Amino acid sequence: MTKVIVTGGAGFIGSHLADALIERGFKVIIIDNLSGGSKENINSKAEFHQLDLRNLEAIKPLFPGVDFVFHLAAKPRIPLSIQDPISANENNLNTTLNVLVAARDAGVKKVAYSSSSSVYGCQDVLPQREDMIPKPLNPYALQKYVGELYCRIFSDLYGLQTVSVRYFNVFGPRAPQEGAYATVVGIFLRKKENGEPLTITGDGTQKRDFTYVSDVVEGTILAALKPTIGGEVINLGAGRNYSINQLAQMIGGVTVNVPPRPGEIMESLADPSKANRLLGWKPKYNLETGIEEMKEKHGY
Fold first, then answer.
1. Is residue 182 predicted with pLDDT exceeding 70?
2. Residue 186: inside a domain, yes or no?
3. Domain with 87 in it: what CATH number?
């Protein structure tokens, strides 16, 4: 049986990924310190270890005999990284280095690293392609980009196969709806359900490439398991973007505007052609169909 590790497997995307791997018959080990995830998200068929990835010696014993590592654990919010860049660096970059070292020393076949579209920053042209020079605007984006560089170095220098997948504004069931890790779709759905106004930062014209979680999970698995893919950076985005105002109109309700946040881009839009060419990946959902599925199947 193929054995895999999913870091951050109690979180939003990580728990969906763990579920999909278990459905495919994989033995799944989850490492999560529960700082952003929840035990309720953990598949009962997974082997769970509540450990902190900043402690290399604590996690290393779990890696021998593992075939693939999916590294999703992070503090994924830009405002948090601006408020406390040191803590963000420890949780987003030091942890990645520890995972790579543990995987290298254990002879893991490949590490799939979950990066972010935020590494692109403000590009002069759209869509955003993997061959563009990253222009990170905040500590979180910089940390995710340096994580990609570490992956490439571990491939080139140590022979550890890696692949970095850049996620574009992932949404879906289990996305946090409250607190520092909440995402805009989850926030809007919660506010709609509670009869509260939808809070829009800035004028709402900023655009995002919203990508449904099951599509991202499928692309991540394909990138990890395809043996010819190594040392690559691959976009996993829907290839279509929407303004925050459009999102608010889809969900419905009264809106209220608040001042914009620093360090955030005005527009993201993925070029997913590389994922299609190398992986045969195409997203099955757009924003409208993803929201409808969340409402119909998950009680939103």
1. no
2. no
3. 3.40.50.720
Domain of residue 218, residue span? 3-169+213-237+270-284
Identify whether 217 is part of a domain: yes
How many structural domains is the chain composed of?
1
Q: What is the pTM of this model?
A: 0.95
Q: Is the residue at 29 inside a domain? A: yes
Distance separating alpha carbons of residues 36 and 249, to the nearest angstrom = 29
- State the catalytic residue, choosing from 113, 140, 167, 285: 140
Judge whether 258 lies within some domain: no
Whether 284 shows a pLDDT value over 60: the answer reads: yes
Please confirm, yes or no, whether 158 is among the known catalytic residues.
Answer: no
Q: Which two tokens stand for residue 233?
A: 């950076």
- Per-residue pLDDT reduced to its tens digit, 268-279: 999 999 999 999
Across residues 58-86, what is the average pLDDT? 95
